[in-house]
Amino acid sequence: MRRIGNQTFIFDKPPFIIGASAVAGPKEAKGNFGDYFDLNLKDDAFGEKSYEKAECKMQKTAMESAVEKARLTFEDIDAILSGDISNQITASSFAARGHNSMYLGLYGACATFGEAAILGGMLICGGFMNRVLCAASSHFSSAERQYRYPLELGNQRPPSSQWTVTAAGAIVLSVNGDGPRLTGGTVGKIVDMGVTDANNMGAAMAPAACECIYAHFKETGRAPDYYDLILTGDLGKFGHSLLLRLLKEKGVDMPESFNDCGAMIYKDGQEAFQGGSGAGCCGAVFSSFIYKQMSAGRLGRVLIVPTGALLSKTSAEQGESIPGIAHAFSVENP
Question: What are the structural domains of the chain?
């Protein structure tokens, strides 16, 4: 493992992604990636008494499925690195309990999946672990009362808002194997441009995504066309258009293949406004569509840039601005 520049790490012996799985809610199942998810729920309660319990079950199911697809058991997993956007990341810690693996709970808001992947890669490339499970999840109905207002209030959603994705994604990183490899990552920095509107998180996250992507290209010496596909995590349609403008101001012209998981996950007419958000958005899209495309050889090099808005309902009510974060990780076929 080499550190190049200030923020970027290159894995000279890249860990393999040997298993991946995604669980999605009923709205997501009707979206653009419904055919790629491993399990599509018929109702977002998932047979549980609360939405929080449902999210925990979703993440647990995605993790167990990823481990099974890797032809391993949890006895083979050195550590679980996971997170979500609920208070005290309970969905993740509760999903990990009962498994005989070390646990590292992470919080990077909707950028958590990228944080888990980069840290997992570091642990393996540093020789500390052989197999790591990385996961992230979110649930629309639980997230709304975490960040805005309970659904029971029936608040009207403004056009700038996004729909928190009900989904979970998980991948298994291994020191040996075959298929797509995690080749490196650029760790982001907090960027706060003073945005205070909790219903316009794309505007809060886009500057952080811009700084992370710019640092990645500058420190690696790569051009955007090095990758077959570049996806941000959940900026939504407005956040994606803003990011394009910010990158252009820095002299970076992005290819037509550049897109955003949140802008892509729902179909037109699904009333998701600016698109999807949530820690499960990028995690589920990568663990299903992207991973399957790479495993089939239809994509060779991919850069994934999960994005996060670091706010809480309390901070928003106290008039605090919304800091943004983004991390980038690269996945390549041999």
Answer: 2-174 (3.40.47.40), 181-332 (3.40.47.40)
Task: List, as one string, the DSSP characters of 114-132.
Answer: HHHHHHHHHHHHTTS-SEE
15 with 156: CB under 8 angstroms? no
Amino acid symbol at 262: G
CA-angle at 236, arms to 10 and 220, nearest 5°: 20
Token readout for 48 is 């549980």
Q: Which two tokens stand for residue 115?
A: 């944080």
Express as a percent the part of the chain with pLDDT over 90. 90
pLDDT digits over 116-143, tens only? 999 999 999 999 999 999 999 999 998 8
The residue whose two tokens read 């391993």 is 72
CA distances 270 to 43, 274, 285, Å, are 16, 11, 17
Distance (Å, rounded) from C-alpha 121 to C-alpha 134?
A: 10
* Backbone dihedral region for residue 265 (phi beyond 0: left; psi -120 to 50: alpha; all else: beta): alpha
